[in-house]
Design goal:
The protein has 336 residues and is an alpha+beta fold. Helices cover 46% and strands 22% of the residues. 31% of the residues are buried.
Length: 336
């Protein structure tokens, strides 16, 4: 019994893995095929030239030299290709790391929009087309009952557009310490951008001030897609009345005003939303009408953001433009 137990406990030899012998077999087979082909090719050449011994030796030397030269070239070319490939891979890893860091920085620049302030409820969403985007929004509450907000879209895409966002946010927050007038804020933003970049890039945007006592919206639309204030039986359009920020020198802006009422739903979005709906199953007008027709008690900023972004995600972008992509941003509020 003890003997059987010891015999059973002996380690068995590791089985040969099926794949271990395959490279050797393939190498031997390849060498044999190459030998047979070379012998056949040499015989054909000998018969073709009807040569004597020196000529046969010359043919053999030529075949061997050509083969060695070809193998040497292929080896060097493969080695060079591998070196270039490794360099490209290293550059790609470094670029991916930079893009990841840029995306993290951009997300950190977006403010935490409160769910509610005195007299209003809020929501905001941004979906970049790539790792980093050119859309942005900012939200400042200088005192109870007053909110200053901006939604913008930097011309261009990718890292150049994203680099401008940090300076734009800092500039906006510096300006609102001195003034709460949307026209003055827009003008100072535009002058600073033009002085720094001479019109390229520029920024389309809506600068808004909301007051709760009484409910009121003062705004400037600088070349941006029109925002909307939705209420029972009506849609009030926040139309553009000025060129984009930073596009032209010495631009003058004028503040427009809208009296708000309890239950009003306001939405401001970038052209990534409006253009995506140009060829989608739901148009922008239909999406806004659906929001307007919903009962006032069911209108919420979160619902507005989600419905518009879902409709934009199902859209195909501008008609006739293949592979179109753009950042999509929505800022919404309701009046309590």
């Amino acid at each position: 019994m003890l003997l059987r137990t010891r015999q059973a406990s002996r380690p068995t030899a590791e089985p040969v893995r099926p794949g271990n012998w395959q490279p050797a077999v393939i190498a031997v087979a390849t060498g044999l095929v190459a030998f047979l082909f070379g012998t056949w090719a040499e015989s054909v050449m000998i018969r073709a030239v009807h040569g004597n011994r020196p000529e046969l030796e010359w043919i053999s030397d030529t075949v061997i030299s050509g083969g060695v030269a070809t193998l040497t070239y292929l080896w060097l070319h493969l080695r060079s290709s591998r070196i270039r490939l490794l360099a490209v891979e290293r550059e790609q890893v470094a670029l991916d790391e930079q893009l990841h860091l840029a995306a993290e920085i951009q997300r950190s620049l977006l403010p935490d929009v409160p769910r509610s302030t005195d007299g209003f409820r809020w929501a905001a969403r941004m979906v970049p087309a790539g790792r980093v985007g050119g859309d942005f929004y900012d939200f400042v509450q200088p005192c109870p009952g007053v909110v200053l907000a901006v939604v913008g879209d930097v011309s261009g895409k990718g890292i150049p557009a994203a680099l401008l966002l940090s300076s734009l946010k800092a500039l906006f927050r510096t300006i609102v310490r001195d003034t709460r007038d949307p026209a003055s804020i827009a003008q100072r933003l535009s002058d600073s951008l033009y002085e720094a970049h001479q019109g390229a890039p520029y920024v389309t945007g809506i600068v808004a001030r909301l007051e709760s006592h009484p409910p009121r919206l003062d705004y400037v639309n600088a070349g941006h897609p029109p925002g909307q204030v939705l209420r029972d039986g009506a849609m009030l359009t926040l139309a553009s009345a000025a060129p984009p920020l930073g596009l032209l020198p010495d631009t003058r802006f004028v503040t427009a005003s809208v009296a708000l009422a309890p239950g009003d739903l306001g939405v401001v979005f970038t052209d990534g939303v409006s253009e995506a709906l140009e060829s989608g199953p739901v148009t922008l007008g239909e999406a806004l009408s659906a929001l307007r027709r919903s009962p006032a008690i069911e209108r919420s900023p979160d619902q507005a953001c989600d419905q518009l972004l879902n409709a934009a995600a199902a859209g195909g972008g501008p008609v006739g433009v293949e592979g179109w992509q753009d950042d999509r941003t929505v800022l919404a509020f309701t009046v309590d």
